[in-house]
Specification:
The protein is of the alpha+beta class and 269 residues long. It has 12 helices and 10 strands. The chain has helices at 88-97, 118-125, 128-131, 139-156, 161-164, 175-182, 189-195, 200-211, 215-233, 238-241, 250-261, 265-268; strands at residues 5-10, 13-18, 22-29, 32-39, 41-46, 49-53, 58-61, 65-72, 79-86, 113-114. Strands 1-2-9-4-7-10 form a 6-stranded antiparallel β-sheet. Strand 1 (5-10) and strand 2 (13-18) form a beta hairpin. Helix 7 (189-195) crosses helix 8 (200-211). The protein starts with a strand and ends with a helix.
């Protein structure tokens, strides 16, 4: 069986390759990134909905997102995806140099995946020498490739400036709604705080007001309640879904479930 690869080609460029269906990571992305599906499909779970990124599709993922992925190889047997990070420092420098100032938020669709124009398509093809290791990406070259990506994005849709150059602080998100929609993501409290527009101390304080328990305790209880529902009513085995609810270890899940409900998962069926 051939191994999947996940390579960091240079500081901001990541290349993923797989040869069989693979559950990807679930991650918190603090920066925008631009991706291109070279082969196969990526199924992304974002904001409670499924988005399918098909072959030869460009996707712009906005910063401060929680994403879980499943990678599906094409019929040829390959899965290939390139992602380039558009970090805040580079974007701020670009905005200053080009006198770009954004005073309003982006109001378009959040699902920013689209067919690339010829320029964007050629751009991603131009990254092949770095991926194939036939050319070394010096820091200078890496920065030029990122700046080129910014130029081409703005050329394809000028309204993207309201996304890329919005450096305002995230607005406060409704804590109860957000946590109930995202409790299954296995990320730390600090990431949850950023995603809801709060410092860690403010997040913990607001969380206590809304839920009357600390975040870690609430997350564990909420995940176990969801697991109970799935086992009892959907008749699924814990081994098939425990990671999707944010549990890292199956034996610890069984222990926690028995402790909370007084029965094993087998006894619940």
């Amino acid at each position: 069986m051939m191994e999947a690869t996940h390579e960091i080609i240079f500081d901001k460029l990541v290349y993923s390759c797989a040869f069989e269906r693979q559950r990807g990571t679930e991650e918190y992305y603090p920066d925008h990134f631009l991706g291109f599906q070279l082969a196969g499909e990526t199924h992304c779970f974002l904001d409670g909905t499924l988005t399918v990124v098909k072959e030869n599709t460009v996707v712009l993922v906005r910063k401060n997102q929680l994403i879980r992925t499943i990678k599906y190889p094409a019929k040829t047997g390959n899965y290939k995806f390139i992602a380039i990070t558009l970090d805040k420092k580079t974007l701020q420098r670009y905005a200053v140099e080009n006198k770009i100032e954004v005073k309003e938020r982006y109001h378009g669709s959040d699902k920013l995946f689209f067919q690339p124009n010829d320029f964007l398509h050629s751009y991603f093809i131009s990254l092949a020498p770095y991926i194939n290791k036939t050319k070394e990406a010096t820091p200078r070259l890496a920065e030029l490739k990122i700046r080129e990506a910014i130029e081409l994005l703005l050329d394809s849709n000028p309204d993207f400036k309201f996304i890329l150059f919005d450096f305002s602080k995230p607005h406060l998100v409704d804590l109860e709604d957000f946590m109930n929609n995202n409790f299954m993501f296995n990320i730390d409290v600090g990431s949850f705080a950023k995603l809801t527009g709060r410092s860690i101390s403010a997040f913990k304080r607001d969380f206590a007001k809304v839920f009357n328990v600390p975040p870690k305790q609430w997350l564990k209880e909420r995940r176990l309640e969801e697991a109970y529902h799935i086992i009892k009513y959907q008749k699924k085995r814990p081994a098939d879904f425990y990671m999707d609810l944010g549990f890292e270890n199956l034996s610890h899940f069984y222990y926690s479930f028995k402790k909370k409900y007084g029965v094993t998962t087998m006894e619940l069926h």
